[in-house]
Amino acid sequence: MVEPSFSQLLVLFISLLFLFTTLGSSSKTRFKYSLEKPHHPLDPLTTPEIKRVQTILSGHDPGFGSGSSIIHAMALDEPEKQRVVRWKKGDRLPPRRAEVLAMSNGESHVLTVDLNSGRVVSDLVNPTFGYPILTMKDIIAVSQVPYKSVEFNRSIEARGIPFSGLICITPFAGWYGPDEEGRRVIKIQCFSKQDTVNFYMRPIEGLYLTVDMDKLEIIKIVDNGPVLVPKSTGTEYRYEFLNETVHIDHVNPMSMEQPDGPSFQVEDGYLVKWANWKFHIKPDQRAGMIISQATVRDSKTGEARSVMYKGFASELFVPYMDPGTGWYSKAYMDAGEFGLGPSSMPLVPLNDCPRNAYYIDGFFASPQGIPVLQPNMICLFERYAGDISWRHSEILLPGTDIRESRAKVTLVARMACSVGNYDYIFDWEFQMDGLIRVTVAASGMLMVKGTAYQNVEDLGEKEEDSGPLISENVIGVVHDHFISFHLDMDIDGSANNSFVKVHLEKQRLPPGKSRRKSYLKVKKYVAKTEKDAQIKLSLYDPYEFHFVNPNRRSRLGNPAGYKLVPGGNAASLLDHDDPPQIRGAFTNNQIWVTRYNRSEQWAGGLLMYQSRGEDTLQVWSDRDRSIENKDIVLWYTLGFHHVPCQEDFPVMPTIASSFELKPVNFFESNPVLGISPFFEKDLPVC
């Protein structure tokens, strides 16, 4: 008799969670956050709108009412860009539409639902090769399939693992050729949760399954024989269960106090105003968090000037570097295959976000079209960490005491998602000098591999191919993280922007002209077409990357602009004909600039699951459209190579990478010259 699995208990847990978070709940605290009507053209679908979409779909296809047709994603189908730009508060909202990704009779559907007319105005069937984002219902149902297999159960029994301590998860399948086409397939790998909640550190190696997701049938079982399952010792990470010997020296609690309250405002749920910034923020099922219509007020003129129409994480690509059976397919597309929104668990007050944070909930559609609450998904807070905005002390003027310094206070919009073993923290940070800093941090658990070895000396001359030993019987498999950002920069308007490559070129001086031998000279090149803007970063061939409006000039004649400032980065080293890289071709370059097209938002394609790489950023850019003095979009991919180490066990400290969008000749002079300093009298006495 097979004992109930963790996955079966998970079904019960999800069902209970669903009851508490659907809008049928009687909790008044949840209704407080439910906006019954939209106030801005880009506001996400409201709960009544989600319900109305489901009703319209049921009239279009009875399968949506009976459950045979499944909703995989539902989001606002945003109005045309120029219509949004022209809209002012008080104007009538543009017609509201929803985009729905669904599965019906084994086929992918991309539907457009007009909420005003109550009709489905478009229903595209299999517009590209691939399937919609997976649902939690998919994952839970598939995780039960192994227990129906006699062969699987015998394999588990042969390994001496009690079924009560078994948990199976569903690594996505990717795409590896025609034998996996024509049906939705998924991989399954199992772990032991006996004596630990950190089951990721106890993989059951050598046993792998491939499952037909729609038939819920096993296609293939690979059993390479038992491999030692790592022990549970040292895998605990929860504070209340840790042994006191692992606690570090106590640090006193700290908090930033604001005696007059926060300086930012959130109007109508999603419109943020802070200092000289205004922007729209919304939760999104796929991207997690979207920033739109970011404008900054010019301190000289008082004019609110557009900087960015829309910015978000478009895809998150994580390929593992183990080509063996059971591992070769582990090359995840976390945004397009599962979604960053549904994996965004409630943020932890005082630890994920400080005391002064403001929280924003998300509302998404269940597979049946029922609104589901994602509470405390995004937080907003002002940050002051002792940083300096600008300063100068003068020592060369006798008799004067000049010590001018200004504290740097910023506004942060944060989301954290737990995509299986990994946690990702996304920060959009706004500075008063007009700079936007985007940071992605990674924490959580490694995806590890079991091994018979307990010490590197046991390996002798044999080195483990897939990664280093990070604990007894545990290999940390080498992998990459790549996050591609869609950045629709609109510098003082959308119609007339250009991308300028500012090259630092070394010049050699002829003998006798100077006591110097060489220097750097700046040369500017305006990218004419999309292929001109396919860029691989190089320290030894340095460029600056400017987005400018050639029709908006400063008093000195410089075009108003912003520049992309890359931070630490990594490039994909996979061959371009490797299946994961074909699908992740957006990592072939770190920078791309494309002509604006409202259908080109997801760097890996709209239908990502089991896609073949036919609808990617690489494909769009290779069309080589004109981009000079046009409405154009910047794409930037930041990345990490991750070679695991012992410090990553059992849960890894956060690692982070970032980039900046910085004004360049956008303002007439330093825009934060006039900010006031802090004085003791302004601060609370505790």
How is this structure best described in words?
- Helix content is 12%, strand content 37%.
- It is globular.
- It has 686 residues and is mostly beta strands.
- The N and C termini lie far apart (63 Å).
- The chain has a ten-stranded antiparallel β-sheet. Strands 9, 10, 11, 12, 13, 14, 25, 30 and 31 form a nine-stranded antiparallel β-sheet that branches. The protein has a four-stranded antiparallel β-sheet with strand order 1-2-3-4.
- The chain has eleven helices and 32 strands.
Q: What's the short story on this structure?
A:
Its cofactor is Zn(2+); Cu cation; Mn(2+). With 686 residues, the protein is mainly β.
The computed structural class is mainly beta
The major pleated sheet works out as: 10 strands, antiparallel
Query: Which strand order spans the largest sheet, edge to edge or round the barrel?
Result: 15-16-19-20-21-32-29-28-26-27
Low-confidence stretches: 1-34
Backbone CA Rg: 27 Å
Task: Give the CA-based shape.
Answer: globular
Mean pLDDT: 91
Beginning-to-end CA distance, first to last residue:
63 Å
Oligomer: single chain
What share of the residues does DSSP label as strand, in percent? 35-45%
Count of helices? 11
Total beta strand runs: 32
Give the helix proportion (percent range).
10-25%
Catalytic activity: a primary methyl amine + O2 + H2O = an aldehyde + H2O2 + NH4(+)
GO molecular function: copper ion binding; primary methylamine oxidase activity; quinone binding
Domain Copper amine oxidase catalytic: 255-673
EC number: 1.4.3.-
